[in-house]
Amino acid sequence: MTEPELRALLCELAASLFARGFSVGSAGNISARLPDGFLMTPTNSCLGRLDPARLSRLGADFAHLSGDRPSKEVFMHRAFYQARGPACGAVVHLHSTHATAIACLADAGPQSPIPPLTPYFVMRAGRTVPLVPYYRPGDAAMEPAIAEAARGAKAVLLANHGPVVCGASLADAVYAAEELEEAARLALLLRGVPTRTLTPAQIDDLLQTFG
Ligand code: 13P
Predict the structure, then answer these.
(1) Domain region containing 183
(2) 172: domain CATH number?
């Protein structure tokens, strides 16, 4: 995909997330890898009305090269790219309602507070979605904590803040963010109701089959 195509796709997918309520106001940020750097949503921008020409252009070292000033969460995105290497082609951070609600639960454990109820959650978000302790938005101190969690997971929940997910491509990362939000919604709908979660063997089978 050329850079103009990636710019257009990023704005199209961001607008779709916004239109469906996965993001409100100026919440959320998205980045995608280019051969020699990254595209990133500008800080304080609304995902519903991004301008492809004004996206932030970062170098391979994450320095701002052109476009509007990048998201204050550049550390969060960098943690994923550096922890997961070339397999990470894009990162999506949202404050989507149900995933954020789970990240606020007093009894949410650090391991994987969203239960593996459905195949597509596991296929898109992976075996575990750990909870990373709370940091102020934009706090560079979050980077090592996210990097550590991201070494073993394609997605994390930030306590009292929201999800961060990565994918091999921009579309993959967006699909993972959507599946994570739906899984969180199901988990809250079923809170207190006896449920069947997928078994470890079923999860292994999914990951072996769909990678
Ligand atoms: P930015 O507007 O700087 O991207 O921050 C939005 C956000 O979601 C903070 O977590």
Answers:
(1) 3-210
(2) 3.40.225.10
113 CA from centroid of ligand 1 (Å): 23
How many distinct structural domains can be found in the chain?
A: 1
The CA-atom distances, in angstroms, between 197 and each of 42, 100, 155 are: 39, 21, 19
Q: Is the pTM of this model over 0.90?
A: yes
pLDDT digits (tens, 9 = 90+) for 75-91: 999 999 999 999 999 99
Give residues with Cβ within 8 angstroms of 49, minimum separation 6.
15, 18
Residue 30 Cα to ligand 1 middle (Å): 10
- Ligand 1 atom nearest to 29, measured from its CA: 4
Residue 44: C-alpha distances to residues 20, 115, 167 (Å): 19, 32, 23
Catalytic residues: 73, 120
